[in-house]
Amino acid sequence: MHRLFISDLHLSDQAPSIETGLNDLITRERGVESLVILGDFFEAWVGDDDDDPLALRVKNLLRRLSLAGCEILVCRGNRDFMLGEQFAADIGGTLLDDVTAMEVAGAPALVLHGDTLCTDDADYQQFRSLVHSRDWQAEMMEKPLAERRELASQLRALSIDAASNKPEDIMDVNDQAVTDLMSDHGISRMIHGHTHRPARHKVEAGERIVLGDWTAQQGWLLRENGRALTLEQFALS
Known about the structure:
This protein is α/β, with parallel strands linked by helices and 237 residues long. It is built from 7 helices and 11 strands. The strands form 2 sheets. It has a 6-stranded mixed beta sheet with strand order 4-3-2-1-10-11, with helices on one face. The protein has a 5-stranded mixed beta sheet with strand order 5-6-7-9-8, with helices on one face.
């Protein structure tokens, strides 16, 4: 299997070089059989009915990739938590659960966005429980797109403000949460994003691989090629 894992692109109109970088990646990686997107693909997602030009361009890009024979797997993040089954259908992909077990480089691995591992951030976990609830999301989808976009903008501003006042370690993963999740599944490899701290960590239960976030200058991916796994940083043109 030749597969790429990416996360935390935070696609938006304010960062056009990242959209260009995504296009370039897909263009040059023609032999890839599977693309796994582990959350925060978009800076915000207000519902699968979003008709914003950026949303339509990205969906068309992924649809073309799918039609060319590449499997596309997508996990929700803390920014694009309202991604749904319609989005997956539109791109010819599959929406993953919050935690998914799959074979990676010849061994079982857990793949997830990673925000659920940050259990020391109690305020965020409480907020996450609210916005991931079916009732809350159903109520949001009844609102006009313009109102949802305004709410998303407000939530982003509140999130940035809240993060600026929290110690760095609170927003990182909790080691015990990592150990518990891996032990519960009996799996010794974990792959996630969210923390923007790319690295390969040896942990009590095995290995934890953290994907990096994309910026205007650089992107990150994890490449699976047969039984080899490499964490790669690359420049965006």
